[in-house]
Design a protein that fits this description.
single chain, three-stranded antiparallel β-sheet, elongated
Length: about 120
Amino acid sequence: MRRLTVLGALVVFLAVLITPTLRSYLRAQGDINGLRGQVASQQADIRSLQAQQKQWNDPAYVKAQAAKRLGFAAPGATLTVVVDQQGTVHKVTKSGVVAATTASSTHPWYGQLWQSLVRTPPR
């Protein structure tokens, strides 16, 4: 009976000693797995950004984006701007539609800028 009591006390002592260490180890492993997931996500973002950088290093892509987003045309090209009844602005060159955007406001740009700075009172 005495051996069993000593053995039981030893098992309880070891359990008390090991439990916090095991808990810390498992928590650290969970943190490591979470960080590995973050690293993989960030590496995917890096690959995506590097692909975008490669595109932007191509002068033809930059010209195409300037034409599409800003409505720019090459020197010597004729640019025609058409606004339909819905307020959609179509910028057209000889090669076809360059950009189609919706007119956001009939106010001039400086009025839109001022309205973006004016603070509306809370309701």
